[in-house]
Amino acid sequence: MSNKIDSKTLPDPLRRRLLAAGLASAAAVPLTAMASPHRHGGHAGHGGSQGHQHGHGGHAGHGAHGAEAPPYTADELKQAMGYDRLEDIPVRGPATAVDRLPFTERDGVKEFELTAEAVLWEYADGQTVMAWGYNGQLPGPEIRVTEGDRVRIRFTNKLPQPTSLHWHGLHVPFAMDGVPGLTQEPIQPGQSFVYEFEAKPAGTRFYHSHGSHHGDESVQIDMGLAGAFIVEPREGERSYDREMTLVISEHQLGEGSANLSALGDHGAHHAGGEHSSNYNLFTLNGRIYPDVKPFKVREGERVRMRLINAGSMSIHPMHLHGHTFEIVAIDGNDVPDVARQRRDVVTLASGERFDIEFVCDNPGVWLFHCHELHHAAMGMIMLVEYEGFEVGASAQPATSTGGHRGHRGHH
Ligand SMILES: [Cu+2]
Question: 316 CA to middle of ligand 1, Å?
């Protein structure tokens, strides 16, 4: 039994990385024949999006097009990203991202500015995926306020498609809930909408697109439209010395940086239910291993991790090496001391949040990763690094023993 990825289904940049890391098995089938079976020259003149269904089964087995052939047409690129050419889309990444969204205080209200826009997001150093990001980043910048604060979010839609903004886990007034067709009209490209509410209750919440209608919410989330919204309690003492927020997302990467949630012929943005879900890129705070920013801790500290599954579908059993943690909050709500589970795996379904805390009593550089190991192989690993710990000094080389000489290796 092997946990290796069948790399022939992966886009080229991912495949090369995984092969290099020994996490994928080399495929005999030419990659180009498999990575984008739905887009090739024969379709160049198809009549646009209407009736454009997935499953061009008749084309299986071709393989004539080149490695760089993008799985989309110029029309589709324009429709999904608002740009005529890939080269025109701004590249954004950790260098331009902010962890926390700044605000201005006016008449006792904390005012934030959020813009949804199309970018090429650098999910790993030098590698990009088409994305829709709040303020151009994945995840969107963390909004952090105190319980009871009055907040006003001025939101602008610079996407080529209508959208909306929902406050997940917050008790907002009905008209502020961001559900298009129910609480408000969808926000059209170029339009703005002002959300205003009292931040409550305290806890790990998040914000995400609710689509332009119920049928494309998953597409918009898969394109990257989600971010943390942390409401700190107004009273009570902090139980931890240090904290971090971890937003989990999933994407469908194709050739040429294509994000197949909005591109290719999945029909994702045309009709509800057409959205495919062949996720092959699982990000932690918008990045994949080894380019995920590590959580740096110090021996003796008690630390909190706020885990948010902002993905639209997958379930992630997140596992910490070398420590036992306590689940201190579920969906943002405190768990009483006597009811706290002590775990080393916590499983997050879509939309769930878990706050975990542990004492840093075992110096090292430890993995925190998804134990659905295909997800780990495709990026879902983060390091918890103790300050001052040297990996090289303690890494032990493997040695062979006489009795096993000539052993052929088992499975
Ligand atoms: Cu997972």
Answer: 4
Ligand 1 centre from 379 Cα, in Å? 9
Which fold, 242-392? Immunoglobulin-like (2.60.40)
Which sequence spans correspond to the domains of the chain?
A: 91-232, 242-392
Distance from the alpha carbon of residue 150 to the mean position of ligand 1, in angstroms:
35
Enter the tokens of residue 112: 């934030």
For residue 250, how far is its CA from the centre of ligand 1 (angstroms)? Answer: 9
Residue 307 CA, ligand 1 centroid: distance in Å: 12
124 CA → ligand 1 middle, Å: 18
Residue 58 has pLDDT above 50, yes or no: no
Contacts of 409 (CB under 8 A, 6+ apart): none
User: What tens digit of pLDDT does each residue of 322-363 get?
Assistant: 999 999 999 999 999 999 999 999 999 999 999 999 999 999
Put residue 59 in one of left, alpha, beta given phi > 0 → left and psi -120 to 50 → alpha. alpha
Pairing mode of beta strands 24-25, 5-6: parallel
Contact 225, 116 (CB under 8 A): yes
Q: What is the CATH number of domain 91-232?
A: 2.60.40.420
Reported as a single tens digit per residue, the pLDDT across 173-182 is 999 999 999 9
- Asked if 91-232 and 242-392 have one fold, the answer is yes
Report the chain's mean pLDDT, rounded to a whole number: 84
Host H or E run for residue 325:
strand 325-330
Alpha carbon of 263 to ligand 1 centroid (Å):
24
**Is a pLDDT exceeding 80 seen at residue 27?**
no
Find the 211 Cα to ligand 1 centroid distance in Å.
24
Q: How many residues does the chain have?
A: 411
* Full-model pTM: 0.82
